[in-house]
Design goal:
single chain; about 160 residues; alpha+beta; Beta Polymerase, domain 2; seven-stranded mixed beta sheet; two-stranded antiparallel ribbon; 5 helices; 9 strands; about 35% helix
């Protein structure tokens, strides 16, 4: 977790310096709401039109993108960084789709930065995806890791 703290400080300082709206999502957001599972990476949503600004600041740490990434679950603008061994995924906020396993259809996942909650993460006050939105997209994905997060968040 030591690498995670230095990585979050590093990337959020860059985003704030560039005046880029962002919110913490994924596993780190789940931890902010009570999940205790191991953190794999740091997920941060930013507007797609801001990737070019970030790219210039983080170029030596880029391991993927920025470009469209699509697999069986995600269809998203993505840039992956490796900061001192900690992976950071910067994901597009407005043109993301996730695969809904129940309906067997792609579903839009649009970030609403105005709903972000300020949470204490590693002693820093950061905008985090709202708990309702986090649980909603984790239910749609329904991967094992998402179900675990939902169970731990619901116990709080």
């Amino acid at each position: 977790m030591q690498h995670a703290k230095s990585a979050i400080v590093w990337i959020t300082n860059i985003l704030e310096k560039l005046n880029i709206p962002f919110q913490i999502a994924g596993g780190l957001a789940a931890r902010a709401y009570g999940s205790t599972r191991k953190l794999e990476d740091i997920d941060i949503d930013i507007p797609e039109d801001k990737f070019y600004l970030v790219k210039h600041e983080v170029s030596e740490f880029i391991v993927y993108g920025p470009e469209r990434y699509k697999d069986e679950i995600w269809d998203v603008m993505l840039m992956t960084l490796n900061y001192n061994g900690q992976l950071i995924d910067l994901s597009g906020a407005y043109h993301t789709k996730i695969w809904n396993a129940k309906t067997k259809k792609w579903q839009e996942l649009i970030t609403d930065f105005s709903k972000a909650q300020i949470k204490n993460i590693f002693g820093i006050q950061l905008p985090v995806i709202s708990c309702d939105e986090l649980i909603s997209y984790k239910k749609i994905l329904s991967r094992e890791v998402d179900i675990k997060d939902i169970e731990m968040i619901d116990k709080k």
